[in-house]
Design goal:
- The complex is a heterodimer.
- Chain A is mainly β.
- Helix content of chain A is 0%, strand content 51%.
- Chain A has no helices and eleven strands.
- The radius of gyration of chain A is 13 Å and the shape is globular.
- Chain B is mainly beta.
- Chain B contains no helices and twelve strands.
- In chain B, the strands form three sheets. In chain B, strands 2, 5, 6, 10, 11 and 12 form a six-stranded mixed beta sheet that branches. A four-stranded antiparallel beta sheet of chain B has the order 3-9-8-7, with no helix packed on it.
- Classes of the chains: A mainly beta, B mainly beta.
- Chain A binds chain B through residues 31, 33, 40-43, 45, 48, 50, 53, 55, 57, 88, 90, 92, 94, 99-107, 109, and chain B through 33, 35, 37, 42-47, 50, 91, 95, 97, 99, 101, 103-105, 107-110.
């Protein structure tokens, strides 16, 4: 089945230790998104790629970076995680044909100790 | 400014009954899309239903239907014949349709639905 995959599902990192979350998709969608969702809140868009075109949200901290080496993969790098970065991180994709319909992966729950 | 309002932080419904989750929106865009997503406790965000602002008929997907009232700027989700597995957080969201590269969804704060046996 075509899908959005996120690894790992649970990630524990230490304060200040860089961490990378990964997302892959078999949907061949050209747009990929990264969201941060804290407990009892709506998802917050961090950035998205439209093909190779990177679009950063104005309020996304510099601590968060992203890479998209090819259509299928997208990575979220947190350079120096703080306690406030503990959250669920959701990857999503959408296509040119149905650009408003986003398909989400299962998420990675990040804990910072 | 674009905004989604979900006024019900929590809802309860008896199994097999229908439930309506409220969503109102504010936008000055002439063309937009409205969405509902379900998020179980596992965390995955599941797309449920989509309504385009120019769609003449209300969207339906199985047990889900969207009660779209454009003049009132409301897009309520109706779940018929509730099941225990429907217990989850439900988010209403909006996106401009003719947005080019602007793909940002505007999200409501969500409604937590509990289905009682």
């Amino acid at each position: 089945d075509a899908m959005v995959i996120q690894n790992p599902r649970y990630q524990v990192t230490q304060f200040g230790k860089p961490v990378t979350l990964s997302c892959s998709q078999t949907l061949n969608h050209n747009v990929m998104y990264w969201y941060q969702q804290k407990s009892s809140q709506a998802p917050k868009l961090l950035f998205h790629y439209y093909d190779k075109d990177f679009n950063n949200e104005a309020d996304t901290p510099d601590n968060f970076q992203s890479r998209r080496p090819n259509t299928s993969f997208c990575f979220l790098d947190i350079r120096s995680p703080g306690l406030g970065d503990a959250a669920m991180y959701l990857c999503a994709t959408s296509s040119r044909q149905a650009p408003y319909e986003q398909y989400f992966g299962p998420g990675t729950r990040l804990t910072v100790t | 400014a674009q905004k989604i309002t979900q006024t019900q932080p929590g809802m309860f419904v008896q199994e097999k009954e229908a439930v309506t989750l409220d969503c109102t929106y504010d936008t000055s865009d002439p063309s937009y899309g409205l969405f509902w997503y379900k998020q179980p406790s596992s965390g995955e965000m599941i797309f449920l239903i989509y309504q385009g602002s120019y769609d003449q008929q209300n969207a339906t997907e199985g047990r889900y239907s969207l009660n779209f009232q454009k003049a009132r700027k409301s897009a309520n989700l109706v779940i018929s014949a509730s099941q225990l597995g429907d217990s989850a957080m439900y988010f209403c969201a909006m996106s401009p349709q003719n947005a080019g590269n602007n793909r940002k969804l505007i999200w409501g704060l969500g409604t937590s639905l509990a289905v009682n046996p």
